[in-house]
Amino acid sequence: MTRTAPADPPSQEKPVPLRRNRDFRLWWGGTLLSAVGDEVTAVALPLIVLFLTSSPLHAGLVGSVEAIPPLLLSLPIGMLVDRVSRRAVMVGASLLSMVSIVTVPIAYLMDGLTLPQLYVVAFVNSLAATAYRIANTAALPAITGPHKLGEAASQSETIWGTSALVAPPLAGLMFEAMSPAAPFFLDALSFVAIVVAILAIRSRLGPEGAPPPLHWRRELTAGMRITARLPLVRTLTALTIVGDFLFAGIGLLLIVLAKESGASGFEVGTVFTAAGVGSLLGAALAPRVERGLGLRSAVVGKHWLTALLFPLLLVDLPSWGIGLVWGLVAFQVAVLNVIQMKYLMSQVRSDQLGKVQGFMTFLSKGSLPLGYALTGFLLDRFGSWSTVLVFEVVLVCLAGYALVGRGLRTGPATARSPGSAESGTSDSQSLLNRPGSEQ
Known about the structure:
Layout: H1 22-53, H2 56-66, H3 68-81, H4 86-109, H5 115-144, H6 149-177, H7 182-200, H8 216-220, H9 222-229, H10 231-247, H11 250-260, H12 265-293, H13 295-309, H14 319-347, H15 353-404, H16 406-410
């Protein structure tokens, strides 16, 4: 009787490095173009309003109009992203932005550009950008697979940090050296390349299957309930959003501190350059920091180190010293952002990522104007020294919460049941096998 040799156990296929992942390269290129275009328009819009009206009030109101869509529409957009093709949402948002933006240079060259048109463009472009970013983040796990989410989150944070450094001077240079219409032409052309990149991605970007029956009230609040139900996501979200609120006006505080130390305009600029460099380094090194220290040590260490560094701003530092302190803080903020994005994508099911990302966008964008207003109020009423002390009290509280927070003590869930009241699917599927992920 012939005996057959036992079959070899199935080998675990190694995940493809992101640099060799064709779809991720396309996603990366599209996201970079989108981020740079958003930053270029964010600078060029108030510039052209000032050019037309010489009114700082109207320039500020354009920025206020841009803040409306994330606050009012991020929750329904997140719900939409989990119900219809995310590829279609990204393509539609890009085309809407292109049509909106290209009207500005056309009207300018025809001497027909008006202030009401710029208000409409600001609103429409912000709406499209909000939809694109929510769908873009929700689609990312389907492109990278579950084993590369940390690296993908690092790349995403690097993209936004790079655009924040490169795009503003580029927009200003094009506005002054070429034409006020030039930045808008560049942004409009970038959306053509974005659409081509999205359509060329072969991965199924989700959501998979037919959506469940629509319940507006339930689905609009689903992102909040899902976040509250996941201890790690809840803890990281609380730390990130309170940090966003606190540091919304940090630029104003740093300018006041640098000016009080006698810094020139150029030296003030170097403070922000140091912050940008620190942010890029933090984004690039975040996966290594987490691997080396572990999740809990990385997050807790970040918050206590920030709380220890921040009081140095009370010392009469030169501008380079202020830049060094804030560069180190920006490094740690970027590390936390990468970690938060990684575990958001890994702990939340693919068919719920849109709703959760919509909720995150609502919290983040809603906290920024309030935080900026608070910083201005504190500086006006109590001065820079007392403002730094208030910031320090909040930072110590955040560090204490990170130390005792249940989510960081229990760590990430190794598997999540997709069955829930939010989705109505079966309870047998692991998190790592969620629809759309490549194993």
